[in-house]
Amino acid sequence: MTASNTTTRPLGAQISHMLKSRGVDTIFGIPGVHNQEMYRGIEEAGIKHVLARHEQGAGFMADGYARASGKPGVAYVITGPGLCNTMTPLGQAYSDSIPVLAISSCLDETAATRGQLHQMLDQEAAGATVCDWSHTAKNAEAAYHLVDRALSEFQTQRPRSKHIQVPIAALEGAAAPAPQETPVISIPAQSGPADLLPILTSAKRPLFVLGGGARGDTEAVREVVQRLGAASFVTYAGRGLIDVQQDALHFGAYLGRPESAKVIASADCVIAVGTELAEVDLWRTDLGNTCPLIRVDIDPEVLAQTTGGTKVQMNATAFFQWLLPALKGHGANTSWNADEISKTRARWRAEADAERPGILPVCDALRAVMPADTMYYSDMTQFAYTGKEIWDMDRPGHWHHPTGFGTLGYGLPAGIGGAVARPGLPTVVIAGDYGFQYTVQELGAAVELGLSLPILLWDNGKLKEIEDSMVRAQIAPNSVIAHNPDFCALAKAYGAYAKAPQSHSELQQAVLDAFRADKPTLIYMTNAMTTD
Question: Which of 60, 95, 88 minimizes the C-alpha distance to 75?
Answer without folding.
Answer: 60
